[in-house]
Amino acid sequence: PGGVLISQPGRTSPAGPTPATPSPIEVTMEPMKKDDFNQLNNDMTPRQIVDYLNKHIVGQQDAKRAIAIAMRNRWRRMKLESPLKDEVMPKNILMIGPTGVGKTEIARRLAKLAGAPFIKVEATKYTEVGFHGKDVDTIIKDLVDIAVVLQRNKMK
Which of 17, 22, 122, 139 would staple 26 via disulfide (CB 3.0–4.6 Å)? Predict the structure, then answer.
């Protein structure tokens, strides 16, 4: 409850249907470049956010609109003063759809726009600590590492 669910049923990627065999966990980290920090504008309207996404992503209008509204609401929440800020719960976004419909690209571009760290995790199989593969703690550490690089680049 309280999140945005974006589903694109019946879509297939240009490469064909989604593979039946799950792939192992793959983490892709994308450090931001100094020029990317100029993208951030906390006063952007959802329409402006969609226009930014339209420059890079074709289609998925409903998804881009829902994401833009969620981003604007996040920025609004960040501007609230306490104690009201403590009363407004942040919302999560869950994007669901087959391979190749643009979920990752929307998230990557939105992170770039917001000046936020981005990490892509193919988490078809999470492992518990001590087993072969990456565990959730390692994935979170990777995200923190990207955030540190992001902050260092902002200070340069």
Answer: 122
